[in-house]
Amino acid sequence: MADNNKKMVEAITSMEEDFAKWYTDVVKKAELVDYSSVKGCMVIKPYGYAIWELIQKQMDERFKALGHENVYMPLFIPESLLQKEKDHVEGFAPEVAWVTHGGSEPLPERLCVRPTSETLFCEHYAATVHSYRDLPKLYNQWCNVVRWEKTTRPFLRTREFLWQEGHTVHATAEEAVAETEQMLNVYADFCENVLNMPVVKGRKTESDKFAGAVATYAIEAMMHDGKALQAGTSHYFGDGFARAFNMTFTDKENKLQYMHQTSWGTTTRLIGAIIMSHGDNNGLVLPPKVAPTQVIVIPIAAHKPGVNEKAQELVERLSKRFRVKADFSDNSAGWKFAEYEMKGVPLRLEIGPKDIEKNQCVLVRRDNREKYFVSLDNLEEEIETLLDTLGKALYEKAAGNIANRTYRCASIEEIKQNLAEKGDGFVLAMWCGEEECEDKVKELTGVGSRCIPFKQEHLSDTCVCCGKPAKHMVVWGNAY
RNA sequence: CGGGGUGUGGCACAGUUUGGUAGUGCGCUUGGUUCGGGACCAAGAGGCCAUGGGUUCGAAUCCCGUCACUCCGACCA
Prior knowledge:
11-stranded mixed β-sheet, alpha+beta, globular, RNA-binding, Rossmann fold, Translation Initiation Factor IF3, BirA Bifunctional Protein, domain 2, 23 strands
């Protein structure tokens, strides 16, 4: 037993020892990605991609239920098109990748690989929307984008990443604002109910908003180490892009109007968020709704007659309701236990000769390793309940982490003290609204503003930095 | 982009200081015994030592460049 424990501990670096190394160990050991020969471009392996497909499917259903349609825009953006909106091009310029040649021919105009597709959607909407009858347009696309980042980490920051970007245009500002808020809520609901990950909804400060936006909203999740991770954003553009791209339509009174616009996105970073929210020292822990395998069936003493047959029978039966696999390899049972824990499979089903005799099996939860001896007669109901319970437990655990690591602070000193004593977390403190104070807090304490949460608390009357009257409570923190 | 570390069979590493023609463990293949928490025995297969150049009779080892990974900062989904 001591030996076994030793081997398991050595399998990956423990979180407490080195959280960053733990993360990359899990990513590799759970077979989510592999590195490629281009820095920051990762091979997403079948198991990792299967998680992404489950995220896509369930998110896409929610988009479509709200009337959105999927489209596909080109990979390339001509330089002149990218430059039409000034703030936008300035914001993205440092990380844009350029194509200058087609084969050996120099291109008449440089093309960039899309870092985001606002400009393409703008061009398209300008060309195709003419009347108020054409509005709203609620488009979304699932694609890859490229941002030439300096430092990269699998899922959290890669040069090429997969995402969805919704781009909508509306006849009125009110409609566009409502869309922005609605989609932020969709993201928050998705994170909480599908990924079992609590998030803070809020607005980004002026300095932190999307290049070209009037307002940027975001959901912030907290990772196990207390650092924040932006899990989704939703932007309200007003008519800024519309004016730059001449996106007009004729309203009911036959007047020419500019369109009102939004965009919103989530990325493969969500997979990184899952890993760092729920994972433990035995590896990945997957939320049941995005687990490619929800139940792994492990035959015990498989050489004994009838065991493999029974296991196969269970797989066929349970596959009607769950994502189920069995491991019939001749690895030892212990090896399989460790393997599927590493991969974060929510439930393990053990079936051996003793179980068959008693018409039962053993179910083991990934999150806490609790064992349940369950009759084969009502197995489906038990699994359903356990998956549900496990999902809720993941949420509660993550919420507990946030509660433990939320520091309400009334002074710079208090912020420093909390961070020093308890580590990274969400610092709640009042702010006057001046960028100068935002920068100063960052400089003095190391934590930047994450967002101005919708759920405001009145901690004090004055800004934590300058002492002038406070306008908002801000969540401050270190971020990925 | 600044600072540190690393690159040697699929994986984790030793060998580099002091140049002499590559080794260990795990994994893999085959056969057998095992099987309720990472089993064991036996026999095998697998490496122009990241890459380009240089020094040398001779380079994994010394020198110069490049690339990638990784950690810590600054920037970002």
